[in-house]
Amino acid sequence: MNPSPIHVVKLNLYKYSLPLPLLRFIFIPKFPFSSSSSSLSLSSSSSSSLQTLDQSQTNSISSSLFHLLSQTQNPNNIVNLICSNLKQHNSNLALLHTEVKALLPHLGTQEVSRVLLRCQSDSSTALSFFNWVKNDLGLRPSTQNYCIVVHTLAWSRKFSQAMKFLCELVELVKDDLPSEDVFKILVLCTEDCNWDPVVFDMLVKAYLRMGRVREGLRSFRKMLRVGFVPTVIASNCLLNGLLKLNCTDRCWEVYEEMERFGIAPNLYTFNILTHVLCKDGDTGKVNKFLKKMEEEGFDPDIVTYNTLISSYCRKGRLDDAFYLYKIMYRRGVVPDLVSYAALMNGLCKEGRVREAHQLFHRMVHRGLNPDIVTYNTLIHGYCKEGKMQESRSLWHDMIWNGISPDSFTCWVLVEGYGKEGKLLSALNLVVELQRFGVSISQDIYWYLIAALCQENRPFAAKNLLERMTRDGHKPELEIYNELIKSFCHCDCIAEALRLKTEMVDKEIKPNLVTYGAVIDCLSGLGRSMEGESLVGEMVASGMLPDLAICRALFNGYCRENDIDKAQSLLSFFAKEFQIHDTDSFNALIRITGGKGDITSSLEIQDMMLKMGLLPNPLTCKYVIDGLWKSKRVDSASLVK
Question: Is a pLDDT exceeding 80 seen at residue 229?
Answer without folding.
Answer: yes
